[in-house]
Amino acid sequence: MAIKERMSGNEAVAxxxxxxxxxxxxxxxxxxxxxxxxxxxxxxxxxxxxxxxxPVESEHSSMSAAIGxxxxxxxxxxxxxxxxxxxxxxxxxxxxxxxxxxxMEVVNRALSGPININAEHSDSMGARDSGxxxxxxxxxxxxxxxxxxxxxxxEHKDVMLPIMICQDGFITSHAVENITLIEDEPxxxxxxxxxxxxxxxxxxxxxxxGPYAISSYCMEAKRAQAEGMRNAKKVILDVAKExxxxxxRSYGFFEEYQLEDAEYAIVAIxxxxxxxxxxIDKMRSEGKKVGLLKVRVFRPFPGEEMAxxxxxxxxxxxxxxxxxxxxxxxxxxxxxxxxLYRAKSTAETVNIIYGLSGRDVKTSDVEDVYDKLQTLAAGxxxxxxxxxxxxxxxx
Amino acid sequence: MEQKNTxxxxxxxxxxxxxxxxxxMCAGCGGTIAVRNVLKALHPGxxxxxxxxxxxxxxxxxxxxxxxxxxxxIHNAFENAGATLSGVETAYKALKKRGKISDxxxxxxxxxxxxxxxxxxxxxxxxxxxxxxxxYVCYDNGAxxxxxxxxxxxxxxxxxxxxxxxxxxxxxxxxxRKDLASxxxxxxxxxxxxxTFISNMRDLYLKAEKxxxxxxxxxxxxxxPCPRGWKYDTPDIxxxxxxxxxxxxxxxxxxxxxxxxxxxxxxxxxxxxDFLKKQGRFKHLFKPGNEHLIAQFQEEVDKRWEExxxxxxxxxxxx
Lengths: 395, 319
Known about the structure:
Radius of gyration of chain B: 19 Å
Structural class of chain B: alpha/beta
CATH superfamily of the largest domain in chain A: Thiamin diphosphate (ThDP)-binding fold, Pyr/PP domains
Strand content of chain B: 5-15%
Strand content of chain A: 15-25%
Helix content of chain B: 25-40%
CATH class of the largest domain in chain A: Alpha Beta
Number of helices of chain B: 12
Oligomer: heterodimer
Number of helices of chain A: 13
Largest sheet of chain A: 5 strands, mixed
Order of helices and strands of chain A: EHEHEHEHHEHEHEEHEHEEHEEHEHEH
CATH class of chain B: Alpha Beta
Number of strands of chain B: 10
Helix content of chain A: 40-55%
Strand order of the largest sheet of chain A: 4-5-7-6-13
Number of strands of chain A: 15
CATH architecture of chain B: 3-Layer(aba) Sandwich
Distance between the termini of chain B: 37 Å
Shape of chain B: globular
Shape of chain A: globular
CATH architecture of the largest domain in chain A: 3-Layer(aba) Sandwich
C-alpha cells in the first residue's frame, strides 16, 4: 500500500534513511543539507533507528570516517552541500578508488564566492570526476526513490563504487510537496542487508586497505575502477526495473518529456525541469514541437543514449546550473556536445548557464529559450556568444 | 581489562611480530622501532585494526601488493588518521550491536608528527574529543621526513631543516616545538603518555599496553629519531633517546584521568648540549659565537621541565 504524505526533500531523504537504517552515519552540518543529520539524530534519540551517528568536526573528517566505517564492513552514509563537499574532495577519490560503496546525500548549493546558500550544481559537478556515481532528482519524490535505490546500485558486485544522491538546495530540499511513500517492509526487502565480500572486521580474513602502489599497478587499478563505473549503467537500469515493481514508478538514465517528436529540446538537470515541463505544456497546446531531456544519471554519463533520444531534434539547448570557468560553458554542455558529435548529430546546440546561486527561472525564460532554438535551427543565432539565462544587463 | 603493569622482557620480545620484516623503512628508523614495540603490547591472540596517516611508514610498509601488517590495516590520507579510525571503531560498535560480528578488536593508529601535530591535528582533536575507543600513536621524529626533512611544529628550536636551513642569516628553526601531549591531555581523555626508546623498552611497552587497554581515547607520543633528518650514526639511536630524557628535552610522563605523573626524574639533569652535539641538525649551534643560542634553547627546556614538575606535583625547587 502506497502512503500519501507531504514532506520536504530533506524529510523525504530522512524517511528513506529511516527505512534503510544504515549502520553508521558521520556528518557535519552545512546549509541546506543540515536537516538530514538533524533528522537522523532525532530518529536515533527517539529509538526509531539504531544507526551509529558520528558528530565529526568537519566534512573532511565526515568523509574520512565514512571511508573507515565502510571499509570496516558497515553500511555507511553521510550528507553535505557546497563547501562541505569541496572540503571532502581529496577523500572522495579515496572512497572511490578503494571501491567503497557508501552513499552521500548531496543537497546542491553554490560554491563560494560570494558565499551563497542557494541551489547550484557547482558542488557536485566539481566532484564529477572523482569516481562517484551521481544521480540527480527533480523533486522530493525522486530524491526519496533514488535514495532507496542507491545501495542496490553502489553495493552491486560489478560496481562497488560510492554514490551521490543529489537534489537542489532549498528548491526541493526545503519545499514541502506531495509524495508517495513505500511501506517499510517492501523497502527493507528491496534494499536488503549489506554483506561485504572483504572488510577490516572480518575475523576470518585480515585485510589491508589503501596501499601505496608504483606505476606498474596503478593504471590497472584505475581501469578496473573505470570498469565498475561502466558496469553501473546496466545495474542502474536493472535496479530501476525492480524498483518499478514495488513502487509503480519508472526510472532510467534520464526522463524524456514530450521528446519523441520534439524538434526543439532542452537538456537539463534537477528542479528546473518542473518549470520546463510547465512551459512545454503551454507551448505544446500552441502546437509547438518542444521537449525535454531531464538528466537523472550524470555518472556514469549516458552520452550515447542521450544522443539517440535527441536524434530527431533540430536544435538543442543544454542548460548548466554550474559555471565551468573554461570560457565556453558548463560541464553538461561540454560532455553532451561531445556525445552528440560522436553520434554524428547535425542538430544545432547551445550551452546556456542558468540559475546560478539560486537565480530564479520562470516559464517565460524557458519559452524564450525554445523560441530562440527555433530561430537557431532556421540559421539565426539570437542567443549570442556564451549565453546566461536571466543575467541582469549592465543598463 | 588486563593491565598487569609488569614487564617480562624475554616473554614480550618472544611474541610474534605484528609488523612483519621486509618493509622498506630505512635501517635504524625510529618510527619502525616505535610501531613494532607498540604492537608488541597487544596481548597475543587479541585482534586489532591498525590505522596509519600517510608518511614514511605508510608508503614503506604497505606497498602494493605487499603488506607488512599481520592485522587488518587501513591507510586513508595524510590528515585524517584520527577520523578514519573513528569510523572503523564506530563501525565495530554498530556491527557488534547488530550481532554481525562477535570478536573483540582494538584500534591503534600511527602518524608521524606531520600527520599528527600539523595537517592531521584537527582530525586527531575531533577523534579524541569524541572519545572513540582507540589509541593514536605519534611517532615524533620532529620534521616532515617523508618529503625530505621540512620543519614541522614538532621540530625543536634551531634545528636545521630543508625549510629552516641554517645559514649566514639563519640559525635554523626560530620557534620552539608544540607540546602536543599537553594539548591532547587538555581534551580530558583517560590516557596520555610521552615516551621514547629507553634501555629495554619497558617504559614504552607499559605505556602502550595501558593506552591500548584503557577504554576510551588514548594518545601516545613517542620520540622516534630519524637518522636522515637528525644526521647521526644509526647505531647511536638509543644513546640519543637516553640523552633526550636525561637532559629533560623529552621528559617521560603519563596523564591518567587528568592526573599528571612523572615517569622518570634524572638524578642529575644533563646539559642540553649533550643531546644536541650528537646530531648534525644542530651542528651550527656549536660554531664559536653561537653559545647564546644553546643557552636560549636550554632556558626553554628548563622552563618546560619546571612546568612539568609542578603539574606532576614534584618538588621543582629540588631540580
